[in-house]
Amino acid sequence: MSKVAVKKLHWRSKVQENFVPLVGSSGELGVAIGGGADYGEFPFVTAAPGGGITVGDVILEIGGTPVLGMTLGDVRGVLNSCPHPIRIKTVPPVALCKDLRLYLSKCFTPGSMDSQLQQVIRENLYLRAVPTTRQPRDGEISGVDYNFVSVEEFFSLEESGALLESGKLKGQLTL
């Protein structure tokens, strides 16, 4: 008996675009989200009224803004600032794993869709304060520009799994 080779389609081929309307007499948004970089996950749909968006779908873009790598608060901010109805791009969870650490740890061909997506994720991650062991420069504020921590605190964060990535930049430990 011969084995039939099944070619797995890339997650990009499963991208769906939907418009989320306001629902009810109070005009509430017809979708709820969870996850986010602060939870080590891609943002995903936790409640949806129906239509094309499904609970569990990974959210790629909201109103044209890539949200992968953003904190949950930032994703909600983007969601709340968009004109209605809101255009949302998603992929089913089976097409793209929700775990940011796993996705960021993979090696992809430079310039590929996945490599480019990793770059978008990292850019969005760096919008938030990241931990570093270097000393603050003039005008930098801890918790705004970076979280300035000791080497011991950094290793503790890394050991506990609180960091999505870590490495050295110019000799200093950083996300």
TrEMBL record:
PANTHER family: MAGI FAMILY MEMBER, X-LINKED A-RELATED (PTHR10316:SF41), MEMBRANE ASSOCIATED GUANYLATE KINASE-RELATED (PTHR10316). Residues 101-175 form the Guanylate kinase-like domain. This is MAGI family member, X-linked b. It is a peripheral membrane protein. It comes from Astyanax mexicanus. Residues 25-94 form the PDZ domain. Keywords: Membrane. The keyword Manganese does not apply. GO terms for cellular component: cell-cell junction; cytoplasm; membrane. Its main location: membrane. It holds the Pfam family Guanylate_kin. InterPro entries: GK/Ca_channel_bsu, Guanylate_kin-like_dom, Guanylate_kinase_CS, P-loop_NTPase, PDZ, PDZ_sf.
